[in-house]
């Protein structure tokens, strides 16, 4: 029976104890509290390339990558230098800067799915604004979201499925008025019948259907391409806007994200995470015709004191300039495929009940025998116990995965072949421990 020594967490535990006096649960975002895995959260001191170091001096190869933004790894030279150069010119002006134009040009000249963009400071803000735009444009109030998709924490979207195929949602957070939940309908992913039913039940009432480019916040729920095309067709037929929330998939699944991946034209696309190169940036984009509804041109109000922040723009430009290099994404995908295939071979050899799903440079371990998982209710919550064991065994071997089995892993361009080989060896041992 394999035994691994637990890493030392003394300093992290001390910091966490202090933090509990300052922040609810000791954190500034809930998943960081390590509630779904063993031990106290690790307080990170620094990162470089694929690695991070915690307060106790433990070193890890990182697959959380700040939850996705760090597609170039930690402390990237170009991003650091661009940010440093901007620091000497000022942090914020609340007036337009050349940098906003530059980032917009970089994106719009290479993304055929949007014609205009508006920068905000987070994914939540991007989605909230996109929903308002859809409502303002269609003059309808209802929106449809999918069970298992996360779109940030704005009120309209903190809604979970009620019972029945097509029902009003129930709030998934205290403090969200019931009236908001009544405007949000939640249905299952990859289910054509539910989609048809929703438009039959609420004709001419639905402003928008919002879906993650590829749902990756509750496992990795890869949709049938045919379903996404069906969704596009049906929304168009009903005068309902289709919003692709590409906060994860944007600039991850290719420079044109999931829209490019499927070859589907959404009406509005939201971005976040990678777009800021590690700084707080979000954005939403659409056709010029739609974007003219946004203030100051149109009547849909949306603003931000730090929107288009010059330091954040400089980071975004530096990051995206690397992503547009030829073959960037092909290489990422090949590296990820090799990593995934090696682990899959081991799983098959051992007959372990675990699947490794992947798309682009995203991967997800699912402790199941099902060969595909496309809906949230296909995930067995009991499988998360196995993830906990794996997570601990990986930390103990210097591999940092996200602290929840519902979270996906990300491979950055800073992960070397040797990093990945080390990780594969650790994953094999971790799986042996799970299934011993
Ligand atoms: C992370 C995420 C958000 C929220 O972005 P924040 O920057 O955390 O507000 C919204 N939608 C999706 C798909 C995300 O992955």
TrEMBL record:
CDD domains per record: OAT_like
Required cofactor(s): pyridoxal 5'-phosphate
Keyword Transcription: no
Protein name: Glutamate-1-semialdehyde 2,1-aminomutase
EC number: 5.4.3.8
Source species taxonomy: Bacteria, Pseudomonadati, Bacteroidota, Sphingobacteriia, Sphingobacteriales
InterPro entries: 4pyrrol_synth_GluAld_NH2Trfase, Aminotrans_3, Aminotrans_3_PPA_site, PyrdxlP-dep_Trfase, PyrdxlP-dep_Trfase_major, PyrdxlP-dep_Trfase_small
Listed Gene3D superfamilies: Aspartate Aminotransferase, domain 1, Type I PLP-dependent aspartate aminotransferase-like (Major domain)
Pathway: Porphyrin-containing compound metabolism; protoporphyrin-IX biosynthesis; 5-aminolevulinate from L-glutamyl-tRNA(Glu): step 2/2
Family membership noted in the UniProt record: Belongs to the class-III pyridoxal-phosphate-dependent aminotransferase family. HemL subfamily.
One family name in Pfam for this protein: Aminotran_3
Highest taxon, organism lineage: Bacteria
Keyword rRNA-binding: no
HAMAP family given in the database record: HemL_aminotrans_3 (MF_00375)
N6-(pyridoxal phosphate)lysine PTM sites in chain numbering: 273
């Amino acid at each position: 029976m394999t035994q691994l020594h637990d890493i030392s967490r003394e300093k992290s535990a001390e910091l966490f104890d202090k933090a509990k006096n300052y922040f609810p649960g000791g954190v500034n975002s809930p998943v960081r509290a390590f509630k779904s895995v063993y031990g106290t959260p690790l307080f990170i001191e620094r990162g470089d390339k694929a690695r991070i170091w915690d307060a106790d001096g433990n070193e890890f190869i990182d697959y959380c990558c700040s939850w996705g933004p760090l597609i170039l790894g930690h402390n990237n030279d170009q991003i650091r230098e661009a940010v440093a150069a901007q620091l000497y010119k000022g942090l914020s002006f609340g007036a337009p800067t050349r940098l906003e134009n530059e980032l917009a040009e970089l994106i719009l000249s290479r993304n055929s799915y949007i014609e205009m963009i508006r920068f905000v400071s987070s994914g939540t803000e991007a989605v909230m604004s996109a929903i308002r735009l859809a409502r303002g444009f269609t003059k309808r109030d209802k929106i449809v979201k999918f069970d298992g998709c996360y779109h940030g924490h704005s009120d309209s979207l903190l809604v979970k499925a009620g019972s029945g195929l097509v029902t009003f949602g129930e709030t998934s957070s205290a403090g969200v008025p019931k009236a908001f939940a009544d405007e949000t309908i939640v249905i299952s992913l990859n289910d054509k019948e539910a989609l048809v039913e929703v438009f039959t039940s609420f004709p001419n009432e639905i402003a928008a259907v919002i879906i993650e480019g590829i749902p990756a916040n509750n496992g990795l729920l890869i949709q049938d391409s045919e379903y996404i095309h069906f969704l596009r067709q049906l929304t168009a037929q009903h005068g309902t806007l289709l919003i692709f929330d590409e906060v994860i998939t944007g600039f991850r699944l290719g420079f044109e994200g999931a829209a490019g991946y499927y070859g589907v034209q959404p009406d509005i696309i939201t971005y976040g995470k990678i777009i800021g190169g590690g700084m707080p940036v979000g954005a939403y984009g659409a056709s010029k015709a739609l974007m003219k509804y946004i203030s100051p041109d149109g009547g849909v109000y949306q603003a931000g004191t730090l929107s288009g922040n010059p330091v954040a723009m400089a980071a975004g430009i530096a990051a995206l300039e690397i992503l547009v290099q030829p073959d960037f994404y092909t290489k990422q995908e090949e590296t990820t495929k090799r990593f995934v295939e090696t682990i899959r071979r081991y799983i098959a050899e051992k007959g372990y009940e675990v699947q490794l799903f992947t798309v682009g440079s995203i991967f997800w371990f699912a402790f199941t025998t099902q060969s595909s998982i496309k809906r949230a209710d296909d995930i067995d919550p009991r499988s998360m116990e196995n993830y906990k064991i794996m997570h601990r065994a990986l930390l103990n071997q210097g591999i940092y995965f996200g602290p929840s089995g519902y979270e996906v892993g990300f491979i950055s361009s800073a992960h070397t072949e040797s990093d990945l080989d080390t990780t594969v060896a650790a994953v094999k041992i971790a799986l042996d421990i799970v299934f011993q």
